[in-house]
Amino acid sequence: MKQRARGVSAPRFSKGQVNRAGVFLLELRERVLVEGAQRALRATDEAAIEAAREALEWWRSLHARPLSTVAANLRYHVLKAGAEVEGRVEVTQRLKRQDTLIGKLDRERGNVTQMQDIGGVRAVVPSVPHVYRVRRRLLKSWTIVRERDYVASPKDDGYRALHLVVRRAGFPVEVQVRTRGQDLWANAIEEAGQQTGVQFKFGEGPDVERAAFASVATLIAAVEEGELSAAELLTAGAIGAAIIGLAKRLEREAK
Amino acid sequence: MSPTDEIKHFLVTRNVASGRTTVKPFGSDYEAAQVAYGAAEREAAVRRDLDVVLLSADSLETIKRTHSSYFKSNLMSELLPA
């Protein structure tokens, strides 16, 4: 109840203020990209930046309690569905980073107060049948406001997961359910983005690399669904590595 | 275990340049964790090499598994030719 005492019951900002704060920080982000952080920040009223950040933080904080409730429910259902991984209920909740929130505004041109994934919770489960076993339980006990099944229909880049949006206390929470392999793949994409600065998960990057990521996602799915053995995958990987090595040698020799 | 209690909050900061990750635990105090999150985001806004996120689970082990990109070098980047 600490949060309530801090003033959640008496709104500190209107939705309009929160949305305008989002637009303000998006414009600031664009200036940072053009002029560099130092110049853009010097040229902008510090108090206005702080006020905008506070509005977004406040809006985000309203999602914390609904998020925790949904995460606790999800833990229960993962356990009841027998979907632990090596005996562990793998459920993690996260409050969206402000800069990814602003980045999403940039890509999708929506309003902050309409975003459905400020509170997000992820469950990692052993297999595709477990994904659907958990889904069946959630559909029985929750009212789902949106469902996107990227397990049945993967994204072009190879991304696979089940996404559901549920509402708690008036706030949306996005639920992602993934297999171990789907999760490893998605984290690899995320990490490749962090290391290279190329946002593969938002469709950036050279075609060759994106095609490679998509192929790997297909191979991982084939292994998880028993269509390909791990040994066959390792052989395929070794062949791939040999081909890359050969290609690099040919490239060097051609110079 | 009971799935409904004992959730702990962790502020995870990855230095993208060095690949190092630091974790600040907040126990069950979500509010304090969120205040620290906001402060860390302000720092990250001027230092582009920091990725910061607030994650919560029954243990840090779970977070390391579900959000492995923050913690270790992954297989995929090694699969791709440099």
Mean pLDDT score of chain A, rounded?
88
Strands of the biggest beta sheet of chain A: in what spatial order?
1-2-5-4-3
Percent of sequence in beta strands of chain A: 5-15%
Uncertain stretches of 5 or more adjacent residues of chain A: 1-5
Based on DSSP secondary structure assignment, what is the total number of beta strands of chain B?
Answer: 3
Major sheet attributes of chain B:
3 strands, antiparallel
Outline the biggest β-sheet of chain A: 5 strands, mixed
Which range best describes the helical content of chain B: under 10%, 10-25%, 25-40%, 40-55%, 55-70% or over 70%? 25-40%
Q: Give the strand tally of chain A.
A: 5
Using the CA coordinates, give the radius of gyration of chain A. Answer: 22 Å
**Terminal Cα separation of chain A, in Å?**
68 Å
Order of helices and strands of chain B: EEHEHH
Summed up, the helix count of chain A is 10
Quickly give the structural class of chain B: alpha+beta
Terminal-residue CA separation of chain B? 45 Å
Strand content of chain B: 25-35%
Quaternary structure annotation: heterodimer
Q: What are the segments of chain B in which pLDDT stays under 50 over at least 5 consecutive residues? A: 74-82
Q: Which structural category fits the helices and strands of chain A?
A: alpha+beta
Shape, principal axes of CA atoms of chain B: flat
Q: How many distinct helices of chain B? A: 3
